[in-house]
């Protein structure tokens, strides 16, 4: 199992950041375009909440995959956790933390993932998946930052 942590500061209130992060449309809009990620089951639009599931379909490493996640922990506007129920990994848990900081919000992601296939999966985690998933999260968070700050900009004028 590997643990990946990322963080970004967003010049927007914590509630705005939290709600954008759990918005299914925003999620698919802020992921890498080449993955063609889309929600196909469960909550497929709007904001996902406590106890709800979503199934995403996307292409990673040239393979179309499905991943179903359950929002297993939810404390608005400070934290939500989604846990993989079905998918390509042996396990995946994504913790989203939102901390008010000055006039904005510190967003911190902690992702735990475990690949299948025993020793081969262990190697894949360390040689490929750690970097790939870190970049995936960082790309998404930059998109989230841009959307949140654009949403708030007209209110600050």
What does this structure look like?
This protein is α+β, with helices and mostly antiparallel strands. The chain has a single domain, classed as START domain (Alpha-D-Glucose-1,6-Bisphosphate, Chain A, domain 4, 2-Layer Sandwich). Helices cover 34% and strands 41% of the residues. It is built from three helices and seven strands. It has a seven-stranded antiparallel sheet. Strand 6 and strand 7 form a beta hairpin. The longest helix is centred in the last third of the chain and has 39 residues. The chain starts with a strand and ends with a helix. Keywords: Cell cycle, Cell division. This is Cell division protein. It holds the Pfam family Polyketide_cyc2.
List the helices and strands and how they pair.
Elements: E1 2-10, H1 14-21, H2 24-29, E2 38-42, E3 53-60, E4 63-75, E5 79-86, E6 91-101, E7 104-114, H3 118-156
Antiparallel strand pairs: 1-7, 2-3, 3-4, 4-5, 5-6, 6-7
Helix pairs in contact: 1-3
Question: CATH topology, what is it called?
Answer: Alpha-D-Glucose-1,6-Bisphosphate, Chain A, domain 4
Instruction: Give the N-terminus to C-terminus distance in angstroms.
Output: 46 Å
**Tally of helical runs:** 3
Which parts are unreliable, with pLDDT below 50 for 5 consecutive residues or more? Answer: none
Arrangement of strands in the largest sheet: 1-7-6-5-4-3-2
Q: What is the name of the CATH architecture?
A: 2-Layer Sandwich
Helix content: 25-40%
CATH superfamily: START domain
Q: Measured on Cα atoms, how large is the radius of gyration?
A: 15 Å
């Amino acid at each position: 199992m590997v643990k990946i942590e990322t963080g970004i500061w967003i010049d927007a209130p914590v509630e705005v950041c939290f709600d954008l992060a759990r918005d299914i449309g925003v999620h698919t809009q802020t992921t890498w375009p080449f993955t063609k990620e889309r929600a196909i089951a469960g909550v497929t639009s709007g904001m996902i909440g406590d106890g709800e599931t979503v199934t995403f379909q996307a292409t990673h490493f040239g393979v179309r995959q499905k991943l179903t996640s359950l929002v297993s922990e939810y404390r608005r506007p400070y934290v939500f956790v989604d846990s993989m129920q079905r998918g390509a990994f042996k396990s995946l848990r994504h913790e989203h933390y939102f901390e008010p900081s000055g006039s904005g919000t510190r967003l911190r992601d902690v992702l735990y993932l475990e690949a299948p296939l025993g020793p081969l999966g262990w190697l894949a985690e360390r040689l490929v998946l750690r970097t790939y998933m870190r970049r995936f999260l960082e790309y998404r968070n930059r998109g989230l930052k841009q959307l949140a700050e654009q949403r708030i900009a007209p209110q600050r004028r």
